[in-house]
Amino acid sequence: MTGTGTGELLRVDRLTVALPTRSGYHKAVDGLSFAVDAGEVMGIAGESGSGKTMTALSLFGLLPHGARVTGSIRLDGTELLGLTSKQLRAIRGRQIAMVSQDPSTALHPILPIGTQLTEHMRYHLGVSKSEAASRATGLLETVRIPDPEQALRSYAGQFSGGMRQRIAIAIALAAEPRLLVADEPTTALDVTVQAGILRLLDRLCRERGMAVIVITHDLGVMSATAQRLCVMYAGRLAEAGPTSQLLGRPRHPYTRGLLDALPHPEAGRAPLVPIGGSPPSLGRVPAGCPFHPRCKYTQPSCTTDRPDPEPITDGHLLACPPDPLRAAP
Amino acid sequence: MTEGNTVLELSAVAVEYGRRGQRVRAVDGVDLAVARGEIVGLVGESGCGKSTLARAAVGLEPLAAGTVTFEGHDVIPMGRRRRPASLRGLQMVFQDPYESLNPRRKVGELIADGVRLGGGSRKDGLQRAAELLDRVGLPATAVDSYPHEFSGGQRQRIAIARTLATQPSCLIADEPISALDASAQAQIANMLGKLVRHADLGVVLVSHDLSVVRQVADRVAVMYLGRIVEIGDTEVVWTHPQHPYTEALVAAIPHADGAGILPVDLPGDVPDPASPPAGCRFHPRCPLVQDSCRELDQRLVRVAGREIACHIRSQN
User: Which pLDDT score, from 0 to 100, does residue B2 have?
Assistant: First the structure.
């Protein structure tokens, strides 16, 4: 294992994912670039259909059958695109692991938790059965499952939703991955349980130098955990930068719209302002800026020119050339 | 604020489930009154009994004790018989708009059913359907479409239009917006608020998302393990929660301000309702716990403009 400290761990460059549909191939992800440093939490935000999940799946080579991928995904310098399934198996679970949204379907219902925790640990790390069992106990302690010995012999159905999600995280951590991809990890959970999981992810990053990509539409969750944020719309990057800047002074009308549409403590009793319309479906992405039909600040050029993300300040990228919120308070 | 025009009244309601021969009390002695023109938010962690209470309020669960009264009529549990016409004004909106609409029937027909129940003809029904769709912000042409042609948010609007067809005076909405996409959530939440003012409806909004409840509810009731632990005006409860459980819930909400502050964790899980802790039910997780909490089972008392069930806080 190299580079456990800081420094760039993942670099995604001009990633494009085209999915086959009845009317031909359509781009679910369109020229997306971003990087994640070791020990960092990076957030990807956007509505459903914005390409967040497809981006995550492409890291694992788990895209739907027939998907066409171009661009580059480099994990610590190794190109992941084009690897054989055998080569990918050595990376999945070992180098990068995933926690999915629904803790009730992520666990096998009729295998004991212990089996699910130790299976890939033994495969990837080659540890003995007893060594794996003791590591599994330690992992369950890390994610604060009471009575871990007993839990190893229990089944998924015997745990609450929050505990199942913590077990799913323990399984993802079992082979000590360097990058954890968490796709809506707390959306199905209560706020109190969510707070526990967010604190857990934060601690793991600091203690293990693990990098995390958090995918969610909940900007509150983003604000609490992610140091940097990418806002995606229709498969493209709308805005990216340090979370404090993006949420404190959003520059893209879509980021502003997301903040105004979601109920959150800062909004007080002000009425929610929905973003009119709905995100474009696959293959119906409008010409020009994909957000222009829903944007309050549309100008003629927005309907024809497709904007690429450009740096506006250090580390802050914006794909909105008119930049109407530049002078906003 | 609920005197006079109370539309739905729950009094000492208890609901039990049988589980492996044991009786489990999911809701234990809840009093709640809903007036016309107000939204009462019902919040709490999963397993606290809020959905069970909502189902009992419309007669989908038999009561183990207590009564539910809708406009002066007893709400009798749903059986095989036709529901009495006097209860037609009490309606429920379900969580999942993908499962609550029959996929093989057109939207117009689905909505017209509500009108026909009230004695209208099929033709009246289809005509009303177009009006109702307009009221929930959908084009009248949607009557000829099938539910699958709509997004989640649009389907939830259709489901709400269908309940409005019966001209209800009280709606019970069980997590109506949690299954929806971010931008659709705001639309449905705003729409519920508008409907309440315009149609003078009483609404019980069940949600695990406190931010949503704060946004639209006039009053909020916080449930823990089958009981209401704090109830009062939303703004009062939210800005100065008194019950330690409400405090923990509010502190657990992450703020979208970019400050990077982690929300506060409430350790432990909701205990098994089959064997609730003695004394105050929240005491095993409570940061203020004292010896007396293990014995004294405090009921709701008025403190600082709202009611709470905590004897530590009600002493001071």
Answer: 43
Clarify whether residues A126 and A268 are in a common domain. no
What's the CA gap between A204 and A187, in Å, rounded?
20
Please report, for residues B104, B155, B157, the alpha-carbon distance to residue B147 in angstroms, rounded to integers and kept in the order given.
8, 7, 11
Whether A298 is in a domain gets the answer yes
Tell me how close the Cα of A65 comes to any Cα of chain B, in angstroms.
Answer: 24
Same domain, A204 and A278: yes
Q: What would the mean pLDDT of B196-206 be, rounded to a whole number?
A: 91
pLDDT number for residue A6: 62
| Contact between residue B209 and residue B178 where contact means Cβ atoms under 8 Å apart | yes
Q: Nearest Cβ partner of A198 from B262, B267, B269?
A: B262
Query: Does residue A76 sit in the same domain as residue A119?
Result: no
Residue with tokens 């294992």: A1
Q: How many distinct structural domains can be found in chain A?
A: 2
Mean pLDDT over each residue of chain B, to the nearest integer: 89
Give the domain extent around A135. 110-174
**Whether the predicted pLDDT of A229 surpasses 90:** yes
A162 and A211 belong to one structural domain? no
Q: Nearest-CA neighbor of A231 among A50, A38, A13?
A: A50
Domain boundary among A135, A154, A174: A174
3-state secondary structure of B84: coil
Q: What's the pLDDT score for residue A4? A: 44
Regarding whether A160 and A44 lie in a shared domain, the answer is no
For B12-45, letters b (16+ CB in 10 Å) and e give: ebbbbeeeeeeebbbbbbbbbbbbbbbbbbbbbb
DSSP classification of residue B225: T
From the list A192, A224, A269, the residue facing B248 with the nearest CB is A192
Same domain, A82 and A123: no
For the cut 60, the answer to whether the pLDDT of residue B176 exceeds it is yes
- A120 and A71 in a common domain: no
**A13-39 as b/e, with b when 16 or more CB fall inside 10 Å?**
eebbbbbeeeeeebbbbbbbbbebbbb
A269 and B185 within 8 Å at the Cβ level: the answer is no
Which 3 state secondary structure label does DSSP give B157?
A: helix
| Predicted pLDDT of residue A1 | 39
- Domains annotated for chain B, with CATH where assigned, are 6-89+168-315 (3.40.50.300), 98-167 (no CATH)
The ipTM is 0.79
Option in B262, B266, B269 nearest A163 (CB): B269
CA distance A238 to chain B (A): 17
How is residue B154 written in tokens?
């649009």
> Nearest-CA distance from B66 to chain A in Å?
29
A240: CATH: 3.40.50.300
If pLDDT is split at 50, 70 and 90, which confidence band does A266 have? low
* A82 or B1: which leads in pLDDT: A82
Cβ atoms of residues B212 and B203 within 8 Å: no
Count H helices, E strands: chain B?
Answer: 9, 12
Same domain, A126 and A237: no
pLDDT digits (tens, 9 = 90+) for B73-86: 999 888 878 888 88
Percent with pLDDT over 90 in chain A: 57
Q: Judge: A224–B186 Cβ closer than 8 Å, yes or no.
A: no
Per the CB < 8 Å rule, is B189 touching A227?
no
Residue of B43, B178, B183, B233 to mutate when probing chain A, most A C-beta within 10 A: B183
